[in-house]
Predict the structure.
Amino acid sequence: MERLADGAVVARSNDPWNAVARVIYASGADRGGPTDYCLAPPSMKQSDPHDYDARQREWKSHCGSWDLSDLLARAGKEPRRSYASSMRDEFYADTESRPVFLTDLPPADDLAVVALRDAWKPVLEAVRRMER
């Protein structure tokens, strides 16, 4: 909602707005081989298919199209870097298909900056509509 100095509303929107900042942290990915890890024991597929499927869905909701062994293999090959705020721009691209590998997680404030980066666009559009 936009207000003039006297408090009158000049623009309003109830449209939902979503923002995502995704980080994958693979600590210890250099121990063993990428195929030494799994989301659930293979026997669970038969013994508890509901829980097995739930784990697969949860992984997909967080990691998209990345297979666990592929992600761990890539994490093992990437240079080890600690996060610095100067790396924030790396998170503006599609981090689901091109994850950023770090030895630590970015602070919540930096992730919020990434997630809210385009929050000003609806405000600018409201101002432009008012100028027409």
About this structure: The chain has five helices and two strands. Strands lie at 2-3, 9-11.
